[in-house]
Design goal:
By secondary structure, this protein is an alpha/beta fold. The protein has 22 helices and 15 strands. The chain has three domains: 115 residues, ATPase, nucleotide binding domain (Nucleotidyltransferase, domain 5), CATH 3.30.420.40; 175 residues, Nucleotidyltransferase, domain 5, CATH 3.30.420; 196 residues, Hypothetical protein af1432. Helix 9 crosses helix 12, helix 17 crosses helix 19 and helix 19 runs parallel beside helix 20.
Length: 511
């Protein structure tokens, strides 16, 4: 569907663009964001594999060729952010610039391009990456493991805050030399011993970095996983060890044939898998959770005030996405209230998820009918939603399919959510469908009708002024919803005798 020029203009002024230029040991990257502060959306993302840190373990310097490649990319980035009118730009440099003997000289050249690079210490890098994970997974408790080209950062998180952080010289550019030696495992264990606090910290490992995400892609491909986004993907330790045992012997050319694994990452994966095997043995985490949010998003999240941080990231993202598609959060909230009596437990923790599903269902109605099914699955399963796990995605998709009149979901959804959860999601969608037949969300509909369960019946009550609404297709959609809930449908205009038996939709027009 097309978004109007007015909507784009309003979005631009409501959500000012921000940019992060990340000068890493392996890549130099520019990411430009717009969208809500709590759930920023990427509108530009490009990188150059300059490999500034490739000689850190040998010469200890940034190679001239790598420096030239990186500076060329950074000059381009400076022009892009200027052309896009981005006023808020953060430029940060990590391990390569921090550890190389000529790192300071390199950063002086970066300044001459009009950029203002900030050199992060190892502890700062760990802390900012942790902020990215905290922003992506509200309430997370565990240890962040951010793997870059020059270093591996660890930091503990709990209760929305970070604690101890450490940086180890175990980046992907250093691992090949370490692994070439016979005592690789011993060397890794020695380094891991420096972060004993991480071994004692409860919870999972939150895996941050492109190489870890490539590992998630490998695992998802091997399992024929129903989702495509590695963000939020979870692995138990036993399965991770099994996959790593295969990866350490894998050929890069075979790995790069898997969707989502680049040639650069395919060469890093076997070494990273070999290190991960040792990490899992040493830390004994509760599991692995992969995060697409890390240092760059952490820089943005770190700037937010407490009120912005406290916002639900899923709802913030859905409001921005659906709002420009003529799906108002105000109307969605009214609809959520109107259909609350058909949910399994009003006021439960899934209410924000239901509200997000309703707003997306509203936006779906703005799509051409022959495209709606595809959009329903793509929006729910493939689009990156922060603060929404696999179960939540499956429930939202079920709701969107229900809003189209479907009462079945793909069998693969059972790998993401329970049958009860999928049933509930379809209920949300079927309920929205009934509300939409009553001119969904209009003030008149809200104040002159109600939908409730009464004993074994599903009762739609209409004011006399709305009596003409009690006709097909409303009666059909109400019957579908009632049958789905194992109830008998009833439309009531006036008082209602609960002892009256009904085997199909009946309209009671008594005063």
């Amino acid at each position: 569907m097309r978004i109007s020029r007015k909507a784009r203009w309003e979005r631009r002024h409501l959500y000012p663009r921000r940019a992060v230029i990340d000068i890493g040991s392996n890549t130099v990257r520019l990411v430009v964001y717009d969208g809500p502060l709590r759930a920023p959306e990427v509108i530009w993302n490009e990188k150059v594999a300059a490999r500034l840190g490739q000689d850190l373990s040998t010469s200890g310097k940034i190679p001239p060729v790598a420096s030239k490649e990186a500076l060329g990319a950074l000059a381009r980035y400076a022009l892009i952010v200027e052309d896009l009118g981005v006023e808020h730009v953060q430029t940060v440099a990590t391990a390569a610039a921090r550890e190389a003997s000529n790192g300071a000289a390199f950063l002086r050249k970066v300044k001459k391009l009009g950029l203002k690079p900030r050199l992060l210490s190892g502890e700062e890098e760990a802390r900012v990456s942790a902020m990215g994970v905290i922003g992506a997974f509200p309430g997370a408790q565990g240890t962040v493991a951010d793997l870059g080209g020059g270093s591996l950062e660890f930091v503990s998180i709990e209760h929305g805050d970070h604690h101890r952080g450490s940086s180890l010289p175990l980046g992907t550019l250093r691992l090949p030399a370490l692994r070439a030696k016979s005592n690789f495992g011993k060397r890794i264990r020695k380094e891991m011993g420096k972060v004993g606090w991480a071994q004692a910290h409860p919870g999972p490992l939150y895996m941050v970095g492109g190489t870890w995400r490539a590992l998630a892609r490998y695992a998802m491909n091997a399992a024929d996983y129903p989702l495509t986004d590695p963000h939020g993907f979870e692995l138990d330790v036993e399965e991770a060890q099994r996959l790593c045992s295969k990866l350490v012997r894998a050929k890069p050319e075979k790995l790069s044939s898997i969707m989502g694994i680049s040639a650069m990452r395919s060469t890093c994966l076997p070494d990273a898998a070999a290190m991960l095997r040792v990490m899992l043995d040493e830390f004994e985490p509760d599991g692995l959770i992969f995060s697409s949010w890390g240092l760059r998003e952490g820089l943005l999240f770190d700037e937010l005030d407490p009120l912005q941080r406290a916002k639900d990231p899923l709802l913030a993202g859905v409001v921005a996405f659906a709002g420009v598609r003529d799906a108002s959060i105000t109307v969605a909230t009214r609809l959520a209230g109107w259909t609350v009596n058909i949910t399994r437990d009003s006021g439960n923790p899934d209410e924000p998820l239901r509200l997000a599903a309703i707003q997306l269902a509203m936006a779906l109605q703005r799509v051409e009918p022959n495209l709606r099914h595809n959009y329903a699955t793509e929006w729910a399963l493939d689009k990156r939603w922060i603060g929404c796990d696999a179960r939540g995605r499956a429930m939202i998709c079920s709701a969107l399919l229900g809003s189209l009149g479907r009462t079945e979901v793909p069998v693969s959804f059972r790998r993401l959510a329970s049958d009860d959860d999928l049933h509930e999601g379809l209920t949300w969608g079927l309920g929205y469908r009934v509300a939409r037949r009553l001119r969904a969300g209009s003030h008149a509909m809200m104040t002159t009708s109600s939908l409730t369960r009464k004993k074994n019946k599903l009762v739609l009550r209409l004011d006399k002024s709305r009596a003409a609404m009690a006709h097909y297709p409303l009666t059909f959609d109400l019957e579908v919803l009632a049958t789905w809930l194992d109830l008998e449908p009833k439309i009531k205009i006036g008082s209602y005798d609960f002892e009256e038996d009904a085997h199909s939709v009946r309209v009671d027009r008594s005063a």
